[in-house]
Design goal:
The chain is an alpha+beta fold. It is built from 13 helices and 25 strands. It starts with 5 loop residues before the first helix and ends in a 14-residue tail after the last strand. The longest helix is centred in the first third of the chain and has 23 residues.
């Protein structure tokens, strides 16, 4: 007979039917005639009661059934005459899958503190608290995907390992295959990341926003939902080092669109939780947070107040409340400020908008006042900020001007012909900026020798050298030049030079010829590629590109040999 989950059995309550249930014993009690086993399988908070007629089972059969034991019960589902449950299982057969020593099994009927459970992490999911949290989390993950799918957003998978720190915060976990105790070093003593797995310094992502914006400008609406990592030295519940973040990005959205999406999204998730997770929510409300359900309904049943940041500051200063942190104009609001506005002043959720530009990220759209940006934070009771967002700056000249003023190191990476267009149209002068070109002209502009092309870019952007990336669609790996025109490869990528008239004649170091590439990272593709590029390979494995084979296709890279 097919096994039924306890949640299904309790929901159907199909009395006078045979059932098979499998799970873990929570408790066993009884008298001389009958034993009662409370059994749970993780499908819901509730246990199902198994009634055992002791006349049908020996002591030896029942003795191993203690708290924590894993069992299978075959029996009859009947209406329960006792209080606390509507149905129960009258056992006809019990099979023990695994026992739990009552002297050492740490979970008992009594409650356990979170501190105690921290030391037995492998058993935490069996507790009511963690079981409820995990079931609610599952329901919310499902609802998130359901919401965005129904609103025309595409799920967009952004990298977990990345060389970008997105907003420049710098608090990132590094990913490396190098020997931490003795990493390879360059001549100037710095760690030589060209010997690392990716050929450069990489980290765990802090946000998928950068790649998400690229997706939005192609698909229109996307959302990310995945793990992110922050190496901040924080031990507060609001700043976990690993967490999952939801990041919608939408083309043509303004601040009003953002606010409507945020409010509708939150209310959808809350309603879904109330519809599908009530038993677990009621447990959490009873045992851990007695105001949980009230707060959820508070957010669900109230319209969100749109409040300008400046007005919010005035309200806080006029409140007469002595806050732990100051709240003058220009400061970033703390949780105590946000909660006051929501819980005491307006008594409804608040969306705070138009923050001072100096406390928000560079990519947020500048307002006409020149002092604030089109940013928003959704504030809810008990938490404060739960969603942050903004309209993105779409004025190209403003972005360039901001880059020029910003003293932090930056990288400008672009397809060669697009960088040339940018240089001719704007000629922005950068400080502390690495300019990297890649991809070539692709038929859009005149093919120039690299040295001449780089001189044009250097003069336009005010930099001393132009970095380059060498790669193609057929390659998994890339080679990089730090400005000298000499490309260096990661350890698993090798470049050879062939005679242009004989693709099987490999030329010695320093001799000009056609570029061949072996890339061991192309695990499921071709490992050997012959290109139409002309260059030289040097004794240390580095190489330079001098141009293209005469009459080669400008847009082509791969030269197949048959």
């Amino acid at each position: 007979m097919k096994t039924q989950r306890i949640a299904e059995i309790l929901k159907a309550a199909a009395v006078d039917t045979d059932v098979v249930v499998k799970g873990w014993v929570r408790t066993k009690r009884g008298n001389k005639n009958v034993a009662f086993i409370a059994m749970n399988d993780g499908s819901c908070l509730s246990n199902i009661q198994v009634v055992v007629d002791l006349a049908k089972f020996s002591d030896e059969e029942l003795k191993p059934i203690t708290t924590g034991a894993c069992i299978r019960v075959d029996g009859r589902l009947v209406a329960s005459p006792g209080s606390g449950q509507g149905v129960e299982v009258q056992a006809s057969k019990i099979e023990i899958y695994g026992t739990a020593d009552p002297d050492t099994y740490p979970l008992q009927k009594k409650g356990h503190s979170l501190e105690f459970l921290r030391d037995i992490a492998y058993l935490r999911p069996r507790t009511n608290t963690f079981g409820a949290v995990l079931r609610i989390r599952h329901a919310m993950a499902y609802a998130i995907h359901e919401y965005f799918n129904s609103h025309g957003f595409y799920y967009f998978h952004t990298p977990i390992i990345t060389a970008s720190d997105c907003e420049g915060a710098g608090a990132m976990f590094q990913v490396t295959t190098l020997d931490i105790a003795n990493p390879p070093r360059t001549e100037d003593g710095k760690v030589d990341y060209t010997k690392d797995f990716f050929g450069k310094s990489c980290n765990l992502t802090v946000s998928g926003q950068l790649e998400g914006e690229l997706g939005a400008l192609s698909l229109g609406r996307i959302y990310t939902f995945g793990p992110t990592f922050r190496a901040e030295n924080s031990n507060t519940p609001r700043h976990a080092s690993e967490f999952w973040m939801i990041e919608p990005e939408a083309a043509f959205y303004d601040l009003e669109d953002n606010m409507e999406l945020a409010e509708d999204f939150l209310k959808y998730l809350i309603q879904y939780a109330l519809d599908h997770c009530m038993e677990d929510l009621e447990f959490m409300n009873k045992m851990w947070d007695k105001g949980l359900l009230d707060r959820l309904r508070f957010v669900l049943h109230n319209d969100f107040k749109r409040l300008d940041y400046t007005e919010g500051i005035e309200i806080l200063k006029a409140s007469g409340r002595k806050f732990e942190f100051p709240c003058d104009w220009g400061c970033d609001l703390q949780s105590e400020h946000e909660r006051y506005l929501v819980e005491e002043h307006f008594k409804r959720p608040v969306i705070l908008i138009n923050y001072p530009k100096d406390i928000k990220a560079f990519y947020m759209k500048m307002n006409e006042d020149g002092k604030t940006v089109a940013a928003m934070d959704c504030l809810v009771p008990g938490i404060g900020e739960i969603i942050g967002g903004s309209q993105r700056e779409d004025d190209y000249e403003k972005l360039l001007a901001d880059m020029a003023r910003d003293p932090k190191p930056k990288i400008l990476l672009g397809v060669s012909y697009a960088l040339w267009d940018l240089a001719e149209r704007y000629a922005p002068k950068f400080e502390n900026t690495v300019v990297m070109e890649t991809g070539g002209m692709k038929g859009h502009r005149e093919e120039l020798p690299k040295a001449q092309f780089h001189r044009i870019l250097c003069e336009a952007f005010g930099v001393e050298s132009i970095h380059s990336e060498y790669g193609m669609a057929e390659l998994t790996s890339q080679a990089y030049s730090s400005g000298s025109g000499i490309f260096r490869t990661p350890g698993w990528m090798r470049v050879l030079v062939r005679d242009v008239n004989d693709p099987f004649d490999i030329r010695p170091a320093g001799v000009r010829g056609g570029i061949d590439i072996i890339d061991l990272a192309n695990r499921y593709s071709c490992a050997f590629i012959q290109t139409q590029d002309i260059g030289r390979v040097f004794d240390d494995g580095s190489f330079e590109i001098e141009g293209r084979i005469d009459r080669s296709d400008i847009r082509g890279c791969n030269l197949l040999v048959q």
